[in-house]
Amino acid sequence: MRLRALLFLCVLACPALAAAQEAPATTAPSAADEAARRARVVARVGDVTITLGEIEDDVNHQSPFMRIRFQSGTALRDHVTEMIRMELLAREAERRGFGDDEEVTEAVRQTSVQLLIRQDFDERITAASIPSEDVAAYYEEHPAEFNQPEMRRASQLVLATRPEADTMAEQAHAADARTFRQLVTDHSADIETRQRGGDLRYFDAEGHTPNAADPDVPIEAAHAAFALANVGDVSDVIAEGDRFAIVQLTGVRAAEHRDLSQADASIRTRLWRTTRQAALETFVDGLRARIPTEVFYDRMRGIHMEPPERASGDPEPSDPDETEPSGAALSPDQVLGGPPPSSAAPQ
Questions:
Q1: Cystine design at 207: which of 34, 77, 222, 337 (Cβ 3.0–4.6 Å)?
Q2: d(CA 292, CA 54)
Q3: What is the DSSP letter of 329?
């Protein structure tokens, strides 16, 4: 019976089943008449019956788009044929003992968890359920997310001396974006920006970048870029610390302001995710407090991890230390979160 349970759970877990059903406005039959109608047997497979009610529920659980096709009698007959086919296959799989297979058991377990989470969290906590007061509070507390200053993107050619910069200035002013990048590759004294053709990425008027992973742009280069009128324009030679630079404007991103009504949907989505996750974690903590739970991480010492398969055509690593031998055991430090085996920490 586990296979039938799996099939039933998979049907219920399908996201398309979340569509609400609306019955046509007709005079409601009596409970007895309705039960008799739904109990009408349409097909039999051995000792299993397929009733009108089961077919009706199966069809109505489809998405509105999919239900359109069932307006055809042929489509309904085909659907019943498919239900019979599934029952025949399920009975044969059960006869062969596949219902006790570990994969089936695990699939039933995972699908059950999905149904639990959907019923207790996804259907209860939605973006629409987030209070408007919380949305407004988030908007007020995070102004930088909804008010972005004008951003500019530029490339710079850095030279070590003023005479070198003056010599390159004429070529730089005549260069398009591609030629300017080549000049940087061939002549720039700044190794970091030279490797990406002089690109400074986007920054504001003070050289601050929106991505925390990107370093700020030298203030002199930022001011030079914001003084240029059009994309493709090139600055005069500017002093940049003890070196000199020429800046080409490569992009402009207009300032952006979103009011609360424009930001409402994105804020609700963000708060929905955090609220749902917090509720789920609280629920799991309650289960952990109620159900004795122990974990022994130290017993994971010596666990063997097979290396990932290398796709055909991938180059072999040049350094033999880049890969672990097949079936290599993880060290205690790797398992327990300590220093990797290549470190100098004592074992």
A1: 222
A2: 40
A3: B
